Amino acid sequence: MSSDKTALPPSAVADTEKRLQDDSNESPPRTGTAIKPQHRRLHDPDVTFEEYHYYALKTREEEKNSPPAVPTISIWKALFKGAGQPETDEPEESASQTEERSNVLNMNLANRANRLEITDEEWVNASRMMRTASWGACWYLITTDILGPYGVGFALGTLGWGPGVALYTVFGIMAGYSGWLLWKTFLGLDSYQFPLKNYGDLAFRIYGPYARHFVNILQGLLLLLVLGQVIIQNGQSISQVSRFRLCYSVCCVVFVAVGYLIGQVRTLRNYGWLANTAVWLNLMVIFITMGVMAHSPPNYAISVLGSAGSAVDPSTITPDPKTGVYPPVRHYGGLPDSKSLVGSLNGLLQGVFAYGGAQLFVEFMAEMRRPFDFFKAMWGAQFFIYSVYLIYGCYVYHFQGQYAYQISYQGVSRYGWQVVGDMLACVSGLISAGLYGNIGIKVFYNNVLMDLFRAPPLTHKGGKILWAIIVPIWWSIAFVVAAAIPDYFGFVSVISAATVVQFTYSFPPILALGYNIRLYALKTSKGDGFDPTTGTVIRQDTGLKRWWRGLVNGPWIWNILHVLYGGGALATAGLGMYAAIEGMIEAFENPQVNAFTCVSPLDLSQVSS
Hints:
The chain starts with 5 loop residues before the first strand and ends with a helix. Strands 1-5-4 form a three-stranded antiparallel β-sheet. It has a two-stranded antiparallel ribbon with strand order 2-3. The protein is mostly helical. About 65% of the residues lie in helices and about 0% in strands. It has a single domain (about 5-80, about 110-300, about 345-609), classed as Amino acid/polyamine transporter I. The chain has 23 helices and five strands. It is found in: Membrane.
């Protein structure tokens, strides 16, 4: 080896081996001088980018030759699946394969001593067995997660026709591009030997342990808050259906109690079937509310509680003091009130929140049999979602104008149709909430319980028991956090600005930038790369020179655009936080309306008094 080359990792290999010996009191089996992937620590910082990338290319080549997953399980079996029932149409296993599957699934792989007994084939098969979702199931998962068009009419009312349509179009395109960036980096770093499980793992393999901890904490907070937001939204629906005779806090608790049951579904492959139901329920609500809005006036009574007019110009929803007649429906080509920056920014954040599903994309890909097919699910779902958003949002704004309510089906004036919309959306929201709870618990389980406390994997009997215990605790915490905030509209804005913007618009270009720099810094023609036999990584140089080469030798124009894209997203998040905080300050001046009381936020007579 020439003197200008750096062979990695002699010291890293020695350090890692020493830690293995300290934990297991035995030398790990070796192939040459290489440490096998299953003998590594969980989230081992000594694994290099080159090693991750080598095994990723190997896995992608194998997946190209595998048939696509075609689910054959019913919705009923998704909730109450008996033991041993197949989840896909794969060929039947032999007796030895069944025994191997049982042995691996019943072994606590979080314990490194157990992993020392696993062969290379068993390790790869254990990873492969966790990937069962098809791209069709993933399409439903993405659509269920992102499809929430009920606030689009409200957002258009705070922004006007031109800015509203333009921003939803731009946000939709950029959300799709962000998903494409996550897909590319995932394919380059995920493998059967080193499976990627969540967003934090992706950050770890590009930027290191601190990035992983930051992303995991933020993602866990996001999923907890979004779950809380869904609980509050559907608690309002139940209270409206009961005509406020049922205590508002009880309405939320009822929703949470049902969530304890649906949260027991562990795999995203099973959630694909539930998501199918949720998508069609959402479409039913859309069509019903469109028909009702065309033949009835807006719900004037609750417009002061969360309509577009209340956010940007309260005078447009104030009835005449003499006649009690409300102002006519009004539309704007541009911003309704250029001086109302806070109102417009909050409307913009509703648009950002609408596309905020990228925080789950890595988790979706991690459970797909062929992650390469994710781009079909992602682009198909994004196009469908964008079309629904614009068609439905423009329709609501056309008929209701400044009276467009932040949850559109609660803004219809006929009680009977309010009930229909509330109940259908409640079932759909329950499935969505189950999805957020599912991913949130997995982030906590994989990165806290397994990493720090060596909890068994979720395929293990002990892991299943822990999951059943954690689900009600997680849902209860989400309810308590969300219930303490007296302003649903402001709550959504805070979630959007502080977390959703980051995962959908800030982090993807930042991750893609780091991935490109590391990838294009490799001089493969001069021998750079990973040798699986010796475990050696060869690099021509290190430090700033290497980083600079990766920046300018790759798609440097795109690298610069990624810097600008990420910076612009962070600036948007900053402005959004300002608007959200201003709105929350005003809401907390009258903090009596929250989910710990019996007064519903939609009960105008009680709220006013």
